[in-house]
Automatic annotation (TrEMBL):
This is Enterochelin esterase. It comes from Paenibacillus bovis. InterPro entries: AB_hydrolase_fold, Esterase-like, Mycobacterial_A85_antigen.
Length: 242
């Protein structure tokens, strides 16, 4: 039975107007137990924000880690997405990719940093995402290397276009990436085709290592579903926040 302390979560909803996207975007903000505006906090920025909170149970895990595992308190920002146009925003070949990545780095980050006491160095900002959310997190870090260097990639959708972009980089020694993929993800049907996610992630791991990145990589039994990723989230968070 879940300890009731873990369920006492402070989650706020914010809405920002994006000039890049030409529309508003909803953010979910988790504040840790004992939150104090006079302190400063590491921050985890999640793509697919609604799913990270609802299916990933990230706020409950955060409470557990902070209350029981002596993890330093941290803030979580979940950036919501319209699933109908998710590929257009998250994939590098998508029509809204440039606008979304610019919105993320140039509008969402400044908004959060103006309103909440989050730390403003790249080693204290963690990007997190599943599938295309993992790969767009990688692209945001490559586009804004002065802002981001830490990535949680859960079964990242590293399609050919993404691997080509990574391969063009020469020095990724500043990057630190937590990568996990499920062994039952070898024939995943996406909206753009059928992919072997194990091979996509192995190839991407190798590209990153060849360019000097630090990669914590694992393959485990699991499908391309939140039932798999949810179990891996606590370790992913501890990897960067312990």
């Amino acid at each position: 039975m879940t300890d009731s302390r873990y369920l006492k979560r402070t989650i706020l909803k914010e809405e920002i107007q994006s000039r890049h996207l030409g529309e508003s975007r909803t953010l979910r903000i988790y504040l840790p137990p004992g939150y104090n505006e006079l302190l400063s906090y590491p921050v985890v920025y999640c793509q697919d924000g609604e799913e990270f909170f609802n299916f990933g149970r990230i706020a409950t895990f955060a409470n557990e880690l902070i209350l029981d595992d002596n993890i330093e308190p941290f803030i979580i920002v979940g950036v919501e997405v319209n699933t109908k146009i998710r590929t257009q925003e998250y994939a590098p070949f998508g029509s809204r990719f440039a606008a979304y990545t610019a919105c993320f780095a140039e509008e969402i980050i400044p908004y959060v940093e103006q309103k909440y006491p989050v730390r403003r160095t790249r080693d204290q900002r963690i990007l997190a995402g599943d599938s295309l959310g993992g790969s767009v997190s990688m692209h945001i870090a490559l586009l804004y290397p002065e802002m981001f260097s830490r990535i949680i990639s859960l079964s990242g959708a590293y399609y050919e276009e993404s691997r080509t972009i990574i391969a063009a980089e020469k020095d990724l020694s500043a990057l630190d990436v937590f990568m996990i993929v499920g062994l039952q993800e070898r024939d995943f049907q996406s909206d753009t085709g059928v992919y072997d996610f194990v091979e996509l992630n192995r190839a991407t791991r190798d590209l990153l290592l060849e360019r000097g990145a630090t990669v914590r990589y694992a393959e485990k039994d699991g499908k391309h579903l939140w039932g798999f990723w949810q179990k891996e989230l606590p370790d992913a968070l501890k990897y960067f926040l312990q």
